[in-house]
Amino acid sequence: MGLLSLTFHPSPAFNPSIFTLPPHRCHRPSSLAVRATSAAGTPQPLLQVNDLRAKILESGVEILHGVNLTVNEGEVHAIMGKNGSGKSTFAKVLVGHPDYEVTGGSVVFKGENLLEMEPEERSLAGLFMSFQSPVEIPGVSNDEFLVMAYNARRRKLGLPELGPLECFSYLMEKLQLVNMKPDFLNRNVNEGFSGGERKRNEILQLAVLGADLAILDEIDSGLDVDALRDVANAVNCIRAPKNSLMMITHYRRILDLLNPTHVHVMDKGKIARTGDISIVETIETEGYETVAALT
Ligand SMILES: Nc1ncnc2c1ncn2[C@@H]1O[C@H](COP(=O)(O)OP(=O)(O)OP(=O)(O)O)[C@@H](O)[C@H]1O
Predict the structure, then answer these.
(1) By CB atoms within 10 Å of each CB, which of 45, 95, 113, 253 scores lowest?
(2) Of all atoms in ligand 1, which is nearest to the CA of residue 82?
(3) Among its keywords, does the record have Acyltransferase (predicted)?
């Protein structure tokens, strides 16, 4: 997220573990958000990627060979593709990961040149990414991190920072949404978290910060059935008619829960095919080679 270089404003000490929360259930089907967008008229483009090329900075090897993709407000895009096809690289290039250098093409986000923005600016502008392997941040507690990041985003939006009590109730509400125990607020970010807890914590960050475009890189990997349902339910609850989602996945289960409007197949650093959920059946029966070749 690149938020660590932002000014640090620790939250007041509190002991969230004394609170027990009932599980929060928001069963709003994801299709509602899509319908709301359609009813409002022609959706506006949120992200426009044109012939994007990028190489690994250290080795100079080009991984993205001309990606084209448009995400409109309110849409849910799934990116699938065989291992090593460039899905995570594409997502990381969008958020400005320092391992990669853009060598060609353009990316416009909310009408602005995304490639000219620093990673922090991209995040503050409303781009969120949950990483395939979320990192630990030793010495920084979850509540400190969330409050710092959320208040930075509020400042960017011209809103007043939340005070300690408001922060507390805001965080508790979001914890409830992702069905996490309050104790997780006191623990250092991702330190000692299980794989599934890290993924759930990523969605907590998304719930707290909000995003115009959330990119979820394999948020479903390592989640048990209940955790997957919780995560999908939280993502559906967070969604708003103008907000969009881009998820990278290998599995159909999360697609059935998040209801993508578009499914893309990435192959050799390009989007090789785009369609609807029916592509997934072809992938499952015939494999990626066949699907990617059907262009
Ligand atoms: N920082 C890096 N250093 C070296 N190689 C890299 C780096 N980043 C990406 N690659 C290589 O680029 C290719 C694409 O990787 P990427 O992680 O984007 O694939 P993916 O489609 O997300 O794969 P998976 O489905 O296995 O997660 C791979 O061959 C990978 O080894």
Answers:
(1) 113
(2) 25
(3) no
